[in-house]
């Protein structure tokens, strides 16, 4: 193997980690070292920002914070831990700070039919941020750019919430010759983020993470093989030649998939719906627990089944702690032998693992095992390895089959309502391209994407984790006028309600399904002029004076809503933390009812207030409002306003 080129070593030189002993010390020697190290770090960061024409003139507050690090006027995040991941608290598997290269893929533009190489990266924190910048490019071992360097700025947490992403593109034909001439390829990503810590100090965190991808596997996805790999074709002098079979390097995902919608099985709706203790017919997968299950034991469970093709022979699999599984081949049999020695490659950011990443919660949650614990090596040990030939060249197929009962993630915080949830499968491997060559280490990623709809052959649908909720203890009105706590109702019982088409006409409705879950974000408590109160999740629909339903969080003081006894005014609105279970009901009328309509949703009376059932909740589950400039300025601290307004001009 040739030595690493100086340009890549210099790229890694932009990663400066302040150990606790240095960052927390105040003696003169350490102060000098701090100043010197931080000065170099600031210079590298400013140089990177300058590439995108960002300076103190158009980002005055950002650059003032960078300069203040020299004076220790603000906190500097320590990212010394393996993979730059910190546990939120002891014993929890959630990753507070998640910086993830999301792979390099080939996508086809729907309009032009041209193939593009697409690179992506994601950054997410569990805490709210004031500013995030991510930049990304694909380079080779000489530091030459294969995709254009791009950057994305986020001011505060807007519609993207706590998930920040960036994409870098290049037309495949424009980079094919340079890609073929490259020996190795790297995703070079940088993130700079500003947030407030627990003591209300501003924290500036910046990281540069470089990961290596497989050049030959990318070429194979594009439909080409390098002459070095093909051997007998080298006399042609061509760097690459077209492969006759371009389908040999497609990942195969059998689970999870989008295979159902309200229209029924086999009719996808562009999302993988994970239902929590409810079944409204649109569920791709259900997570059903007995109603008396303790909240601490309600976990999100997702099945994973599929395969991945890799160019060459995979000889080593890196586990999350960077111990390894050595791939041994003897007499045609392949076995995985565990090696307890930690061996973290330079250009690998994560070991082999599966993550669930929500934009509402931030961070990420890795897969655990069926005993509900964070088992760090669970996914890697589920992999099976097989070898074959692809046009005479060694090829490896990695396969996995994790049943839903064992695809357990995190703690009960994931048993909640999340929109556009990412599932990410990461593979860290050594592979030998040709016999007699040294192994190369590379990362491979399969998972969901949120790219716009103008592309095909890219990624997989995101998940929506859904249920809907009224607080435990909420009194539901029955047809006879009596009330029962929602947790005491059963499927088949009748309640008083109304159709979405005639909200003023009350009728007896039958409970067809009951949703039970937990809520991890503050709930909304509404209080009326007559003293009625109701605690419900922010997205639960409430029927207004007009007969239309709106989110509970969108209701304003003074608004009039429908109740069991007519119109009432909302006089008080509060956010309340709630630790117990939440419930909702799916209601229906018999199909022999002359007024029956397919897809009809209903409302009911909760503590006397008219609110939506599960079907109406599904219609209003998630909001996709577009933020205006005024909206951003209203939620952004004043000191960031000029930086944000300047960003609109670039």
UniProtKB/TrEMBL annotation:
Family matches, as InterPro entries: Hint_dom_N, Hint_dom_sf, Intein_N
Q: In terms of domain of life, where is this protein from?
A: Bacteria
PROSITE patterns the UniProt entry points to: INTEIN_N_TER
A Gene Ontology biological process noted in the UniProt record is:
intein-mediated protein splicing
Q: Where is the signal peptide?
A: 1-23
The residues covered by the Hint domain are: 467-565
Q: Which UniProt keywords apply?
A: Signal
Q: What SMART domains does the record point to? A: HintN
User: What is the protein name stated in its UniProt record?
Assistant: Hint domain-containing protein
User: What organism is listed for this UniProt entry?
Assistant: Pseudoalteromonas rubra
* Taxonomic lineage: Bacteria, Pseudomonadati, Pseudomonadota, Gammaproteobacteria, Alteromonadales
């Amino acid at each position: 193997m040739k030595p690493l080129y100086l340009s890549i070593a210099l790229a890694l030189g932009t990663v400066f980690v302040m150990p606790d002993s240095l960052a927390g010390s105040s003696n003169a020697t350490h102060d000098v070292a701090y100043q010197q190290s931080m000065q170099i770090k600031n210079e590298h960061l400013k140089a990177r920002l300058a590439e995108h024409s960002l300076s103190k003139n158009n980002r005055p507050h950002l650059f003032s914070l960078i300069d203040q690090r020299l004076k220790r006027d603000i906190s500097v995040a320590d990212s010394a831990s393996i993979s730059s991941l910190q546990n939120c608290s002891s014993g929890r598997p959630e990753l507070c700070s998640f910086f993830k290269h999301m792979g390099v893929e080939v996508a086809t533009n729907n309009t032009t039919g041209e193939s593009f190489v697409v690179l992506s990266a994601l950054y997410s924190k569990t805490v709210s941020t004031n500013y995030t910048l991510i930049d990304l490019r694909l380079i080779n071992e000489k530091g030459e750019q294969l995709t254009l360097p791009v950057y994305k700025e986020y001011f505060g947490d807007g519609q993207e919430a706590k998930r920040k992403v960036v994409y870098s593109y290049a037309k495949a034909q424009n980079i094919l010759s340079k890609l073929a001439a490259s020996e190795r390829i790297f995703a070079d990503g940088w993130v700079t983020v500003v947030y407030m810590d627990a003591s209300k100090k501003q924290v500036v965190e910046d990281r540069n993470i470089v990961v290596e991808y497989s050049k030959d596997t990318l070429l194979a996805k594009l439909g080409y093989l390098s002459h070095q790999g093909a051997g007998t074709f080298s006399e042609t002098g061509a760097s690459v030649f077209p492969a006759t079979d371009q389908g040999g390097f497609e990942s195969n995902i059998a689970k999870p998939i989008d295979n159902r919608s309200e229209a029924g099985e086999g009719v996808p709706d562009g999302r993988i719906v994970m239902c929590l203790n409810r079944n409204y017919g649109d569920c791709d997968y259900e997570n059903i627990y007995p109603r008396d299950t303790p909240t601490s034991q309600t976990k999100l469970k997702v099945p994973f089944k599929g395969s991945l093709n890799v160019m060459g022979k995979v000889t080593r699999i890196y586990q999350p702690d960077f111990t390894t599984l050595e791939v041994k081949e003897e007499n045609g049999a392949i076995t995985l032998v565990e090696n307890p020695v930690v061996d973290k490659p330079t250009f690998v950011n994560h070991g082999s693992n599966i993550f669930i990443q929500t934009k509402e919660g931030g961070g990420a949650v890795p897969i655990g095992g069926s005993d509900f614990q964070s088992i760090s090596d669970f996914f890697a040990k589920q992999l099976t390895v097989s070898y074959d030939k692809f046009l005479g060249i060694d090829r490896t197929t990695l396969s996995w089959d994790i049943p839903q009962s064992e695809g357990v993630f995190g703690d009960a915080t994931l048993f909640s309502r999340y929109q556009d949830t990412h599932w990410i499968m990461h593979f860290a491997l050594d592979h030998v391209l040709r016999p007699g060559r040294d192994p190369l280490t590379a990362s491979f990623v399969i998972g969901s994407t949120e790219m716009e709809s103008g592309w095909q052959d890219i990624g997989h649908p995101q998940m929506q984790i859904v249920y809907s909720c009224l607080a435990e203890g909420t009194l539901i009105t029955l047809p006879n006028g009596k009330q029962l706590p929602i947790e005491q109702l059963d499927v088949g019982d009748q309640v008083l309600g109304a159709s979405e088409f005639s909200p003023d006409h009350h009728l007896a409705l039958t409970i067809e399904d009951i949703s039970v879950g937990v809520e991890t974000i503050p709930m909304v408590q509404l209080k009326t002029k007559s003293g009625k109160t109701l605690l419900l999740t922010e997205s639960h629909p409430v029927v207004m004076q007009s007969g239309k339903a709106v989110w509970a969080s969108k209701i304003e003081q003074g608004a009039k809503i429908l109740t069991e006894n007519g119109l009432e005014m909302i006089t008080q609105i509060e956010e309340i933390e709630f630790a117990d279970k939440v419930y909702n009901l799916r209601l229906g009328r018999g199909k022999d009812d002359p007024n029956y309509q397919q897809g009809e949703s209903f409302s009911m009376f909760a503590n006397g207030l008219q609110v939506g059932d599960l079907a109406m909740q599904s219609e209003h589950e998630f909001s996709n409002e577009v933020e205006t400039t005024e909206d951003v300025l209203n939620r952004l601290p004043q000191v960031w306003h000029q930086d944000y307004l300047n960003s609109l001009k670039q």
